[in-house]
Amino acid sequence: MSILASFHWGWLLGAAVLGLIIGWVSIARRSDGLSLRTMRWSLAAISALVAIAVARLLPGRLGYWLDLGLLLGLCYVIGCVAGAWLRERVVARAVAKASASGS
Amino acid sequence: MPDQRPPGIFKWSRRWAPGLIPLVIIWALAGWNGTVPFEAGLAAQGRNAIKDTVLDGASVMVEGRDIRLSANAFSEEGRLSALAAVEAIPGVRLVNDATGLLPEAKPFIWTADRDVVRVTLGGTAPLPAARARLMEAARNDLPGVEIADRMTFARGALPRFEAAAVLLIDQLPRLKEAKISISDGNVKLNGMASEIGGREAITAALRNLPEGFSVAENIVQAPPYIFRINKDPVVATLTLSGYVPDNNVHAAIVAAIGRKFSGEKIVDNLKASVGAPAGFANAVMTALGSLSRLSTGSLLISDREVRLSGDALYEAAANQLRESAGGSLPQNWTYKADVSVRPAASAVDSTICQQLFSELLGKERIRFESGKTDISPDSVGLLDRLIATTLRCPSTSIEIAGHTDTDGEGAANLALSQKRAEAVLNYLIRAGLSSERLTAVGYGSEQPLASNDTSEGKAQNRRIDFVVK
Question: Quick one: three-class SS letters along B83-96?
Fold first, then answer.
């Protein structure tokens, strides 16, 4: 995996930056996003894909592309988490400052 | 008061789906751009990993992160080592094993063929290194000759195969044409040696084959073993060419020529070489006697065939020479004669006739076996010339006079000289001369030519004279 990461580091970085942006904006969005049911199915599908990758079930290029996709997805998720967490920190600080000045 | 609790990763993640579309685009772009270079990089590493392992027909195919290794290994150990080396490459996900062991050749056959322009090494070799060394040996032994490599690989060679094959390759320069094979431990050679002695040298070299190898067939033809003498009476020269087995035979032949030919100059171009057929020396000695009876001609010995051609001095001599070589040839030898008769010389009167006899007998003497009355075979040439001279003197009576030295009793010497003179007379009569004008007289030691006090003088006194009456 480390070879894959070092070879595709540019694309992985791109996925992480994309995740950072999506995570950042996700805090401020009003919509609830995906339903719980969809989320559950999505998690199940991702788990299944990870299992297929770990078990090396897909041969040749398909297996390679699956590994690459999962790695990109992981970077995207890490980016999302980081973005959301940072935005949440910024929002919380702003709220704290507003309440302090209002009191 | 607003809710201070963090909304939670799970809640946020429900809003991350919009990024999936650009993520898929990134994925597609990464796959599109990176797959082929990534595979090429892995393939290069794969080839590098097995480069020190001895494999035949190795190929590394990469699909994604999976490597397919195809190769024929020379041993199970080598096969497993190649697989392990490929599996150890970082980034490799799966190794598809398409390796196998080379087939085992039974029998293990290796060949070397030589024709005029090229040498072809074929059959099977046990290892690439061995194959390269065999090619190198052939190139070193045969500079300037095209060497074709048709060898394939197989397992199953005997332990010292390479040494045996190199030894056989080393014989190729001695062969003009060759088909050589090793089948397990059996060595077969067919071909034509390029020079006299090549066949024997090859046979000697094959005794050094390594343990486990033996000669099953050795049919190497040699070029004919040639021995030739040309007799040219105009310049009184005997020209010797071709081969003799060794210096002893060479010396014996030259000595025999000295006894059988009188006064001819010898041009000796003989070379010593092995490869003479059995009985060569005896055959040459016999054939030299026949050649000495020709006025002009040649003797050619080619392997076991004796060919005599030229002009005899008279008809009876020609007939004798056509029938036989003048003695028994060794077994399995053949004799061919193409003999004609020299045109008869004009008749001469008795004075010239005596002069001719004196000239002939002044240069050499009729020889007899020691203490006996048998004429030596060395004197047949001289006797033919005496007969030819006698034929030129049709109107003269000739006394064949025998003489001895003073050794021994007088009566015995007289009897010996008489019998030797009669032996010569009988020889002349058998040659077709009329007995009416020939007489044989023995004088014992009564008419010495030189002093009997010295061995040289005695030798001069032991003689047969032809006296025109």
Answer: HHHHHCCCCCCEEE
Q: Is B22's Cβ below 8 Å from some Cβ in A?
A: yes
- Asked whether the CA dihedral A21, A26, A30, A34 is positive or negative, the reply is positive
Nearest to A22 among B10, B16, B94 (CB): B16
Overall domain count for chain A:
1
Neighboring chain A residues of B4 at a CB cutoff of 8 Å = 92
Q: Do B428 and B436 meet the contact criterion of CB atoms below 8 Å apart?
A: no
Tell me B336's DSSP state.
E
Tokens 């002695």 correspond to B197
Block means of pLDDT (10 residues each) for chain B, 469 residues, are 54 86 94 92 92 87 93 90 92 91 92 92 93 95 93 92 96 94 95 88 94 94 91 90 94 92 88 88 93 94 94 92 86 93 88 92 86 88 93 90 89 93 93 89 90 86 91
Report all structural domains of chain B as residue ranges with CATH numbers, in order of start: 39-102 (3.30.300.130), 109-221 (3.40.1520.20), 246-341 (no CATH), 350-468 (3.30.1330.60)
Asked if A64 lies within 8 A of B93 by C-beta distance, the reply is yes
Count other Cβ atoms within 10 Å, centred on residue B342. Answer: 18
Spatial CA neighbour of B102 closest among B59, B154, B27: B154
